[in-house]
Amino acid sequence: MAIKLVTTAAELRAEGARLLKEEGGSSLGFVPTMGALHSGHATLARTAVAANDVTAVSIFVNPIQFGDAVDLDRYPRTLEADMALLDAEGVDLVFAPSVEEVYPDGQPLVRVTSGPLGEKWEGASRPGHFDGALTVVAKLLHYGLPAGPAADGGAAAYRAYFGQKDAQQLALVRRMVADLNFPVEIVAVPTVRADDGLALSSRNRFLSAEEREAALVLSRALRLLEQRANAHEPLDLPSAVGLVRSQPLVELDYFDVVDPRTLDPLAENCQDTPFRGEGLAIIAAKVGPVRLIDNIPLDS
Ligand code: AMP
Question: Which of 150, 157, 185, 256 is least surrounded by CB atoms within 10 angstroms?
Answer without folding.
Answer: 185
